[in-house]
Structure formats: structure tokens, C-alpha cells
Amino acid sequence: MTDAEFERIEKELGLKLPEAYRKIVRDLPDELLDWPPLPGESCNRRLENFLLDVDEILKVQKPARRRVRRGFPEHGFVFGRSGENYWLIDASADNPKVYLVFTSSRMLLGGQENLAEHLERIKAKHRDAWAEARRRVEAGDRATLSPDELIDEARRLARPAVLLVEAGKDYAAVWQGTGVVPPPEGEWEHCVSLDARFLPDNPRKLRGVLSVYLCVEDSERIDDVAVVHNPEATLPRESDGRPLFAKRIECVPPIEPLMKFGCQRIQDWLQANSFDPIDGYDPDRFADPAPLHAYEKIVTSEHPFKARTDCYAMLGGWSWCFKWEYGIDEEYPWELFERSLLLLTVHTEPYIEVFDDGNEFVTFSRIT
Q1: Which residue among 75, 129, 298, 363 is the one 20 to 30 A from 139 at the CA level?
Q2: What mean pLDDT do residues 221-237 have?
Q3: What pTM did the predictor assign?
């Protein structure tokens, strides 16, 4: 970028660009300008973390300002993009800190301590992007997977489940109202009582009725889940709760356990795409995102946690993957999916999970 272009930016935006910014943009290495194509694309990309076209720089100032409005610094200057987000500095500072205008939540997030650190981060990402692109080329067919292959594997892993719905022939549960089996001592709210005969996966061969409660007392037990069982109990013919009926389905797994427990073909595909669980199952990180897009439609339309409709809860099947409740550095408890899922409520929060490991109930209440 020339001095005349810097001066044009300053004149049109009414600010003075710091020398630290000018120097970095003048001295940007040429090799940093060329980036590998995104997965599924064929053309190389141009550097966006530092925008070099004056017209584009001037154009992005207004949409970025609109995103954070009063939070936008008085001398804020957007110098680059990261997808739909914008990189920003306070041009009044000599060695300004870098911020990210996070457009989806309309927030200004702290980034690198200065532009030099930001540049080093971009250099590292550039090296990683080209290394990943080379790995995909070397992987060849292993880096691609057809949507049918992914969906077929999901169907193979599908588990029998019973949805508890508002209408049907087989009376299977009572939602809310008074619980069939009395709760423990304390303040508890009845969630659901269910007939154990309808459990598709019942490792202890439980009979009778299981009643599930949520603790609502003002104590450290709040939101605890209790499961009480009476092998002699039966569902009442009349109740102050809502009667629910059984609807049998084959429940496909959410995308995370499908990838975790899928066949070797799936594992080879993930490895060839340099998959990192920390990044999540972002379709744009794969050489061909079509399989993930196709399976997302399947899960959204079939899994009761996403489809909902008139379903209040599910017995058996695959639970949802509540990964947001676990930190980045915290190991996800995948062993939960290897236990028998007795219940997943999907009607209202908190979402309650009840697993049976063959000896005792393992319970969770989940808030999104």
C-alpha cells in the first residue's frame, strides 16, 4: 500500500493511522497473500486478515460500526476480516491492541496485544492452512466421503427408541402432575412417570413404574434428579398429569457420537481431513462438506431433541451430545453413550437424562 493510499484512508475516515499499522502493511511478505482454497472450492484465496484494497477497507467500516454501535471506539479502524467478523484497532494508540468485531453476537472481543503479534498469528495460520491442504491432496479418496456412506453408517448405529407423545394406543407414561411413585424427602417437582415395559434398553429388567423428579428446593440440591422405582406400581387410569403414549422409532445418533463410534471408514475420513474435536464438526473444515450437510438434515428431522413435534421425552435411543456443558480442556464423558439410556426429556428445560449402568441410575439435568 502506498503513502497516497494511506493518506486517502486517513482523509476519508478522519483519523491518523498509527505507524505500527503502516509499517506492517508496507512490509507484508508476498507469500502471505496467497491462501489455499477452502474445502470444496478450487480457487486459492487472498489474504483477508489484513485488507489491502483501499476501497474495500473504506467499505467495511460502516457495517462493522453498526454491529457494535456505542461499543465502537471513537478512533476505531477496521483493517481486516475473518470470515464474517472484522479485525479492528484504535487508531489513536501508538501500538494498538487488536480487537475482533464478533458479528453474530454484536460484541467487541479482545485479540492479540498488538499488530506484530497478530501478524505472527496470521503467519502461523497460513503455514497450517497450506500444510492441511497438502495433507488433503496426499490423502486422496480417504479425504472424501459420500453423503450416502455417512447416512448408511448412522442407520447401522441407530438404536431402538420409544417416543412419549400426546396421542396413541399404548399408554406408556404420565407427564407432570402427581408422580406415581412418591419422591424422596424434600421439595421435588414431578417430571414423568413411565411404565418400565416400554423401555427398549432395560439392562436390569426393571418392572413396574419409574418416577423421575427434579429438586426445586432452595439448597445445593436444586436441579438434582431423582429416580424412584416401584416394581409393583402401575400407571393410573386417571391422573392430574398428561397421559403420554408410546411411538416406536429407530433413533439415529447425533453427529458427535456418529463420528466417535463410527466405522474405520469414518475414522479414516476424519483423519484425512485433519479433524480436531476442539473445532467441532464444522462442515467448512472438510474437503467436501456435503456429507455433513446431508446428515444434519437427517438429525434435525428425526432426532427428537431437534425435531421435537409433539414428543415430550424419549426412552432408549441416542441421547443428545450436550458438549457445551464441558470446557475445552475437559474430557467429554463418552462412556455415557455406552450406557443404557432410559430417558431423555425434550419438551422443556432443564432436559433430563437418566442412564442405567446395570447397577444404578446416572442422572443429569441440562440447561442450554
Answers
A1: 298
A2: 96
A3: 0.65
